[in-house]
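Appendix B. Chain record.
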Amino acid sequence: MKPLMTDFQERPPTPSTTRDLLAEIARATDLREGREGVALVMRTAFREGPLPLRDLARVVRMPLPVVGAVRRELEARDLLERGQGVALSPSGQRFCREELGLSARHDPRCTGCAGRGIVLEPALHEVVAAMTAHIAAGPPVDVTLDQAPCTPETSVLRALAMHEAGAIEGREILILGDDDSLSVALSLLGKAIGAVPRRLTVLELDPARTLQLQEAAETHDYPVEILAHDLRDPLPETLRRRFDVFQTDPPYTVDGMSLFVSRGLEGLRAEPGLPGFLSFGDLSPDDMLDVQERLTLMGCVATRIRPSFNTYAGASILGSVGQLIELRTTRRSRPFAERTARFAAPIYTGEVRPRERRYRCKSCATIVAVGSGETFATVEALKETGCPTCGGTTFQRQHAKTPY
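Structure tokens predicted for this chain:
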């Protein structure tokens, strides 16, 4: 009997030369996603281009510098051309059609929700407007704490995602770190739609951020408990096993993510099926596997992952987007961090991958080192204090090839 031929069997295999070219570009850019990552950039440029580099990074869910490096390699091979954003050259168009087998330019994603699965109804525009005013009046971002507040729309969408999961009404909610002001969004949304939590507690390290959250609670008249706490330390005994929902947008490192989720589990009651919400950067498959392994070790199961759900005003190195992961506890859920000791491993990006930058004072030409372990951890701190030689507050970043 003649075997039935499927569409997959009828299609010619991907030429080895194509795979070699994609792999060569992946190696040249140290792309963790490998040749598939390069192919994804090409497919996106084919279907949606030309588009700005920042938008391309958001769609392919890769860091902006990485996508920029891939673009340069593709341009060097005459597959992309400079112009109005990232665009395929005629050679790139032929490559996509003949080598990658692309033809359709149809984008199947929902245009109403941008793939998030949740839409902001007109009735909630006032909530977004209130969040916009609140976030605009926020304190300066502290990059040493990996702060990168999300947009006002994202904060409300995240609250709606929690509502959809049954994690607001009548719930006791613990927020671990709140530079996104989710406590404000939850409270304003609760008033707008009648979904009010039974208890809302925020743990925040940044004093300026804590003060702003307290002022928002007074302005909008809602109950919230805001506590100054460094999550490298165990939770206070009065907060252990008292909540049934946690939410966190932790530092950009796997250890930081693991610690914040672990503290969240410390706060939850010892029951299966309780929800947790984790916002984290869109990652390569290998890095995402590390995250999933850590979550599995803590006995958490990811029941829903929404890629590129969160949009951030900063975090351009991550493409200004990140995923929202809905977790549920199991009977095996356990915090991994010790309850009696301070967590000693580095958790913030500047600690894990320290980088020293050098700035030249425009007034007196003094060169000042900025970074983890230096007198000034950030250029913002340097500007606030002033040049140690003349007190000037205007500086120019010095690059490796810039003569001092």
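Further analysis of this model is presented in Appendix C.
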